[in-house]
Amino acid sequence: MGRILSGVQPTGSLHIGNYLGALRNWVRLQDEHEGLFCIVDLHALTTHPDPAELRAWTRNTAAAYIAAGIDPHKNAIFPQSAVTGHSELSWLLACQTPLGWLNRMTQFKEKAGKKKDQANLGLYAYPVLMAADILIYKATHVPVGEDQKQHLELARDIAGAFNHQYGVNYFKLPEPLIMETAARIMSLRDGTAKMSKSDISEYSRIHLNDDNDTIALKIRKAKTDPEPIGETLESMEERPEAINLIGIFAALSDKPPQDICSQYTGSTFAPFKNDLAQLIIDTIGPIRDEMTRLLDDPVTLDGYMKTGAEHARQLAAGHMEEVYDIMGLLRV
Ligand code: TYM
């Protein structure tokens, strides 16, 4: 049985990209794996959230995990900051990470933009903390969306650098698990941009807590083109918004995109969008209602996270002692 670790930043309401690219796969993997699912609040600090909002989004994200189907009795669900080993290991690994590796990270370049000198050190070191999240538990598999692939490759490189530096075979190289369907859900306003929590347009994404009318409205307003739906995805090559909507439909109905093309070939987008909105409502509706129920009882919700954190802390503490020992840090 492998051990999976993954996380989401509590920087806003989760969207169907997070659900289809990450959460849904965690749920499917939980039976065959030991699961550790953190809410990466330390990573969120790189964006300077308001403290009260950060606390609220941390609970909201935990509720989304559970409502999506992660069983809190079988898996550890916890805020990253509750296990201090993540930050400690991050420093130890930072000392093994050449700057050249960090300079290649496309996410830093995108987020820092032109004002690189004003970006904070935390944003730059973000992938090292992410490597620590994974390696501190010696996780074997990391289920994420495609956008995290480069960070996972870096985590593997850092693990290798540590093993090499100390002549040990201590850290296992974690395997990324990127599901083919829905690895990258795009914005509803621009089929070439990733659906993202930080997009300024609310209409670019469907949130897990959107009500049914909002879902229907956002899908009605989703950008498309005047052409009818093509016979195959290849025939729609230059139509990224059309491909994205077909991809979302396919992922939600667990069918290959080709089946959806065949079903709607020649149709305009109006009837397709009606069916897509209904499909999203059928999937998201129960999750949203369960999230509301969980958030109404923060004592129970925090209790799940407390139990999860205790389990994670125990695992992490044992590994940290071993890492300190390997590195020659005197434990007095
Ligand atoms: P975050 O919060 O940006 O995203 C959380 C998860 O959702 C996936 N995802 C998507 N998948 C498909 N289409 C999209 N449009 C889309 N947007 C987001 C992400 O790939 C991710 O799996 N760095 C991570 C958080 C993190 C982490 C970790 C993940 C911190 N430490 C350790 C795994 C292991 C992040 O920013 O996720």
Q: Would you kindly provide a written description of the structure presented here, covering whatever features stand out?
A:
- The protein is mainly alpha-helical and 332 residues long.
- It has 2 domains: 2-183 and 297-327, HUPs (Rossmann fold), CATH 3.40.50.620; 202-293, Tyrosyl-Transfer RNA Synthetase, CATH 1.10.240.10.
- The chain has 13 helices and 5 strands.
- The protein has helices spanning 16-29, 41-44, 51-68, 85-94, 99-103, 106-112, 121-135, 149-166, 212-221, 240-253, 257-264, 269-295, 298-327, and strands at residues 2-8, 33-39, 76-79, 141-143, 175-177.
- The chain has a 3-stranded parallel sheet with strand order 1-2-3. Strands 4-5 form a two-stranded parallel sheet.
- Helix 1 links the parallel strand 1 and strand 2 (33-39).
- The longest helix has 30 residues, at 298-327.
- Residues 5-9, 17-18, 21-22, 40, 43, 130, 133-134, 142, 144-145, 147-148, 151, 182, 184-185, 194-195 line the site of tryptophanyl-5'AMP.
Order of helices and strands: EHEHHEHHHHEHEHHHHH
How far apart are the first and last residues' alpha carbons, in Å?
35 Å
Which runs of at least 5 residues are low in confidence (pLDDT < 50)? Answer: none
CATH homology-level superfamily of the largest domain: HUPs
Question: What's a concise summary of this model?
Answer:
This protein has 332 residues and is mainly alpha-helical. The chain has two domains: 213 residues, HUPs (Rossmann fold, 3-Layer(aba) Sandwich), CATH 3.40.50.620; 92 residues, Tyrosyl-Transfer RNA Synthetase, CATH 1.10.240. It contains 13 helices and five strands.
